[in-house]
TrEMBL record:
<feature type="domain" description="Ig-like">
    <location>
        <begin position="23"/>
        <end position="138"/>
    </location>
</feature>
<feature type="signal peptide">
    <location>
        <begin position="1"/>
        <end position="24"/>
    </location>
</feature>
<comment type="similarity">
    <text>Belongs to the myelin P0 protein family.</text>
</comment>
<keyword id="KW-0472">Membrane</keyword>
<dbReference type="InterPro" id="IPR007110">
    <property type="entry name" value="Ig-like_dom"/>
</dbReference>
<dbReference type="InterPro" id="IPR003599">
    <property type="entry name" value="Ig_sub"/>
</dbReference>
<feature type="transmembrane region" description="Helical">
    <location>
        <begin position="150"/>
        <end position="174"/>
    </location>
</feature>
<keyword id="KW-0812">Transmembrane</keyword>
<protein>
    <submittedName>
        <fullName>Myelin protein zero-like protein 2</fullName>
    </submittedName>
</protein>
<keyword id="KW-0325">Glycoprotein</keyword>
<dbReference type="InterPro" id="IPR013783">
    <property type="entry name" value="Ig-like_fold"/>
</dbReference>
<keyword id="KW-1015">Disulfide bond</keyword>
<dbReference type="InterPro" id="IPR000920">
    <property type="entry name" value="Myelin_P0-rel"/>
</dbReference>
<keyword id="KW-1133">Transmembrane helix</keyword>
<dbReference type="GO" id="GO:0005886">
    <property type="term" value="C:plasma membrane"/>
</dbReference>
<dbReference type="InterPro" id="IPR013106">
    <property type="entry name" value="Ig_V-set"/>
</dbReference>
<dbReference type="Pfam" id="PF07686">
    <property type="entry name" value="V-set"/>
</dbReference>
Length: 198
């Protein structure tokens, strides 16, 4: 009976040490990306690994889930070199724009279409590091770019500065005209005083 406990304890220790050694990678993406139909857009995906980076060991895969669908389509792969899609929705549209040695697993979508509306996922592996969660991007293709909150804020700040400059310019002009008018009045008064003396 004691041997069973010893074997069980040894197995649990081995399992615990194995679980402890597996580390998760950190994969970062933008959560929302909006693109104008027909333009090129870079889907940025960066990662951090606790193990040394090797061009041949790191694998990057991209998948796509269309709006209203539950299944994912794997369309891009990189390991040592890029393997862009040769068939399907993203043929001639997805190109590699990352650098795995710098922790960059980005791709660029060229000539985006309305059929690209959906969720893109970036998966990275650098054994023995594993990725706990995929970086997900909610992608929306529009006819025209809508104003973001930052754009609206920039317009508001720029407009406020413009109004302040306009008011300041008017104030300075009024002061200059008044001063010029006062100088002319003073000169006319001096001329009248001279005429009276004469």
């Amino acid at each position: 009976m004691n041997r069973v406990w010893i074997y069980l304890f040894s197995a649990l220790c081995a399992l615990a040490s194995g679980v402890y050694q597996v580390e998760a990678m950190e994969v970062l993406t933008s959560s929302d990306v909006e693109a104008v139909n027909g333009t090129n857009v870079r889907l940025k995906c960066t990662f951090k690994s606790t193990h040394p980076l090797s061009e041949d060991k790191i694998t990057v895969s991209w998948s796509f889930q269309s709006l209203g669908k539950t299944s994912e389509e794997w369309f891009f792969h990189h390991q040592g070199k890029a393997y862009p899609p040769t068939t399907g929705l993203f043929k001639d549209h997805a190109v590699w724009s990352g650098d795995v040695m710098k922790g960059d697993a980005s791709i660029t979508l060229q000539n985006v279409q309305f059929t690209f509306n959906g969720t893109f996922s970036c998966h990275v592996r650098n054994p023995p590091d594993i990725q706990s969660f995929a970086g997900k991007i909610s992608f929306k293709v529009v006819q025209k770019v809508s104003f973001s909150e930052i754009g609206i804020l920039a317009i508001a700040v720029g407009g406020s500065i413009g109004i302040i400059l306009l008011i300041l310019t008017i104030y300075v002009c009024v002061r200059l005209f008044r001063r010029k008018d006062n100088d002319m009045t003073f000169e006319m008064d001096e001329d009248r005083s001279k005429d009276r003396v004469l």
